[in-house]
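U., I forgot to send this yesterday:
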Amino acid sequence: MRVVFGVLGPVAAWDGDGRRIALKGPRHRAVLARLILARGRVVPAERLVDDLWTDPPPGALGALRTFVGALRAALEPERPPRTPARLLVTEGPGYALRAESVDAWRFEEAVDAAAALPARDALARLEEALGWWRGPAYADLTGEDWAQVERSRLAELRLHAVERRAEARLALGMAAEAVPDLDAHVAEHPWREDAWGLLAVALYRSGRQGDALAVLRRARTLLIERLGVDPGPRLRRLESDILHHADRLAPPAVAQVWAETAAAYDRTVASGARARLESTVGLLRSLAVTGGGGLEAARGHRVAAIAAAEELGDAELTARVIGAYDVPAIWTRSDDPGQAARIVDAAERALTAPGAHEADRARLLATIALESRGTGSARAREAAGEAEAIARRLDDPALLAFALNGAFMQSFGRAGLAPRRDAIGAELISLSARHGLVTAEVLGHLIRLQARSALADFAGADRHAGAADRLAERHELPLVGLFTHWYRVLRLAATGAASPGELDDAYRDAAALLDGAGMPGLQQGLPGLARLSVRVLHGLPAPAEEEIDWGPYEPWARPLVLLAQHRDGEAAAALRRVGDPPRDLLLEAMWCLAGRAAIAVGDRATMERAHRRLAPAAAELAGAGSGLITLGPVSQHLDALVAAVSGADRRRPRSAGR
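Result:
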């Protein structure tokens, strides 16, 4: 029976049919709440006793066992006598709750997911999530110190969700609908300056300029009288913008503007004009960052646009059409290698045309570097360097950002280059922030997220994940949330904050985000690889199932799968067929898989080769540079390889003459 637990209000539980489960007295609910708070971790019985009683009575431990027994009977009424509990389990010195559904956890996930959604979808998600609240979190445990931090955290998250809901309504032109909730919100929480600002904007867009200014004056008075602080610069600027009817405060009319502009374009630009082809590429560039079907459509139409430009026989136009598609790229495997090769060929042909402008030439070279990702091509590395040199010489920020993306894609010549990529990301962020290059700034944060993860700097990676999410929310870039979600699962794995089973579940949820994202180069084989990474990280055998889709990682995963099936001879043969992995974000991870298999089958040559290739990355976490998975510290894999080779040397028989 599936049980749903609730803490967004009084502590409660419901069975699979939605019927409320009787939890008896307050101490029973306190035990349940304390275990929910532990998120599946074991809470020692002594800790539970201390949390339940300020001054525990002599029979406290026995009373605790009684409470646990009553909870088990309530949560699993159909469990046969003397069979192990499935939900509230005994482990070692204490108890753990194997909860699958808790409203607070679902609320947190919904708020995080809404940040990466378009405004209409985000509004629906937030409306639903806010409806789960039945009162203050852990409402019947207000006097318990151990619950206070979580109560405060959830309360803050709820306030954040209320304000994000208001932002979504404003983005959708629903200013009047946003006013009542915001008015009540600031009345209860007058210290939240962002909420005051949202209320003022909602009133202004509802045609109530006077009320908007009055709200800002009320905010100033309350902040000064209650907190002793002046309003921040954003509220002060907002008051000035309302007085002067600033353009940024105008209500959204996207659909109307789009329709009118498209109609004007159709009337004034001839159907066969070359300008239409260049404009199409600009539209495809915008379409690509919307994710899903938009990205897939943009890729297909891009090739058609290049072919059309070449048919016109205009070399300059072809160069502009190819180079204008400067969509930032973070993943180092191509979604369509055949298509990428055709684009590279077209770019090389355009480079041979006489009279190409330097900027066009740099864009063509950057395109070659980007579309040759993961191939290890010397030409691609050369093109990346030349594009970057031209961009720096021309002092063109947008061109340099494009060239740096190409340099990133060609920064995998060997293992251990996370610091080099970190520097590229840092320059992209600085450059883009100065010149308003939003998508390149997001790319910089994602590159640094990967690099800091590789270097085990999760505080730094967290900052870049947060910055990327904020930019994505502000500028409607939904694919960003996919990468930051995977990063947060990687963080759980790398920091030991979750068990193998919990990580499998978390990666399964992350894999679901890939469906329909339009990135087959990322999706193919990744769910299987994530599952394998969890097993390797915890010293467990590889998954033995044959139906797992390993995608491009199959050559490096197969020997470990065969070993898990006790087919050691076949594993050794499969390992001998494995070549060097592609030079991409998973280079170190693939070498670690090969090294692990080599140790298991005693393949000294592969052990030595893996050690040589991995040695430059000794200070990194294997695979974490992907921002998706990790196999643990490279140094541990190196130590295991050294020990295995040394052991093989000791076991080798001496020659007769020695």
